[in-house]
Design a protein that fits this description.
The protein is an alpha+beta fold. The chain folds into two domains: about 190 residues, no CATH class; about 80 residues, Alpha-Beta Plaits (2-Layer Sandwich). Helices cover about 60% and strands about 15% of the residues. Strands 2-3-1-4 form a four-stranded antiparallel sheet, covered by helices on one side.
Length: about 290
Amino acid sequence: MEHNSSVYRHFQDLLYAISGILFATFALKSFLVPNHFIDGGVTGISLFLHEVFHINIAAVIIFTNLPFIIMGVIQVNKWFAIKSFVCISLFAICLLYIPFPIITNDNLLISIFGGFFLGLGIGLAMRAGFALDGIEVLALYTLKKTSFKISEIILGINVVIFILAAFHFQLSIALYAMLTYFVATRTIDYVIEGLEEYTGVTIISGHSEIIKEKLVKDFGRGITIYKGERGFLKESFETSNDCDIIFAVVTRFEVRRMRIMVQEIDSKAFVFTNAIREVAGGVLKKKHHNH
């Protein structure tokens, strides 16, 4: 059983990687490269160098990602770096030999759909454990050397790219590049996290028994209970009561329904949520697929 599961995972990763490479190739050859567009990240650096120095885009993709692949050996592991190098090399080969047609020369459509398909490709590759764009590896490396957050580092790198694009080309090109990058990053988020992005919910209520039953039986969710105390108000600081602190993981589509349910049971309940980027194991409702 474990062997079959391992084979299935490897096959799934391979399918993600191939699909990711093809979508990214489609984005560059059908939208961005023929219309002289720029993106953010390492792909944006590659497109910028291609436009300025007129070097073959496939060669530039490998050249610009190579330092980040080497960083990946240190920041992640050697296997990740090898897989990423193979993935980027296949990406370059596809850019050379697959004749995708030019879809449009409308700037807005290029920004939106070029960013969408590029984000789809990068996101699928990331789900397979590969990297088609090395900017996050660079951000991890810089994070250890500075006090900046990863998001701040990536933003700073992209600001430099967009400023260079504005000076070398024109401001409109830089603005379209920002739109392309925004669409690409949002698409990556959806591909990696899925439409059913999970949210952690913590509930503190004097009616916890009813809420626990509703979450398990009506929502089909597993719950975790922390033992705590509630009370400690300014006017009655010495008064407190033991309580169950409920923690559950729901999809973001269920958050509103869950809040309504809690409010109907206890209008004074304290509820707060936090985004969860990845979950595995436990009692999670399986995603439904149409057959």
